[in-house]
UniProtKB/TrEMBL annotation:
Alphabetized Pfam families for the sequence: Phasin_2 (PF09361)
Organism encoding this protein: Litoribrevibacter albus
InterPro entries for this protein: Phasin, Phasin_subfam-3
Coiled coil: none
Name the UniProt record assigns to this protein: Phasin family protein
Length: 131
């Protein structure tokens, strides 16, 4: 009897803490993903900056100055594309995090959606079989 009580208590505890454990795993994975994304972005921006410093150090006369400024248009376009790409990646990560968090917080809704999907698919084959 006591063994059953502790076994039941242990199972209930695991069941009650499962969402918290999933949340912690989600937070850890999200932070790691964001950290890697930030490190990659920092590396790319540092490389762009070093290229610009190198290009600026090669300015020797008026002609090289004009060439430098003409190349700046392409550089700013590349920088703009990179920033937009990084922002989109961050937004996508935020959306994925929200969806995963909603799945953890509302597991009953997810189970109901899974039950409804097969239920809708099941009548179609039976309708064909009876026809």
């Amino acid at each position: 009897m006591t063994t059953d009580f502790f076994k039941d208590f242990s199972e209930k505890t695991k069941e009650n803490f499962a969402p918290i454990m999933k949340f912690n795993e989600l937070m850890s994975a999200s932070i790691q993903d964001l950290f890697h994304a930030q490190m990659s972005a920092t590396q790319r921006y540092s490389e762009m900056t070093m290229e610009q410093v190198k290009a600026a150090s090669e300015i020797r006369d008026m002609e090289s100055l004009q060439n430098f400024f003409q190349k700046q248009i392409g550089t700013f376009e590349a920088l703009n594309e990179q920033v937009m790409s990084d922002l989109k990646a961050m937004a996508d990560a935020g959306i994925k995090f929200r969806q995963d968090l909603e799945a953890i917080m509302n597991p009953a809704e997810e189970e109901q959606a899974e039950k409804k999907a097969p239920a809708k698919a099941a009548p179609k084959p039976s309708a064909k079989a009876s026809a």
